[in-house]
Known about the structure:
Helices cover 36% and strands 27% of the residues. The chain is an alpha+beta fold. The protein has a four-stranded antiparallel β-sheet with strand order 2-3-1-4, with helices on both faces. The protein is globular and about 40 Å long.
Amino acid sequence: MSFYMISCSPQKTRGSKRLTQGVKKLNCISKVQLSDMAFIVNADCEVDSIRDFLAPYSCEDDFIFIIPVDISHWASKNLSQDAKKILVDWGKELNK
């Protein structure tokens, strides 16, 4: 199980919707949307594969950043209850 943070910054208005659609279509175990353009995914793949999958959903000048994350330690402010629940559940699974 690997967790990755995906942060996107579309340079054009239409890019936001397309990138979000791309993340939602990403083949992964589970995912959580943290904010408009920030996600954590639980996936059995490498960062390059995620980037390559999202490329068709982005414009040439869109910013996409993907990095492995340790979900056992995190803090938040104003994170939705749904997102918190998913992160807590993932943490419980890791500690089994």
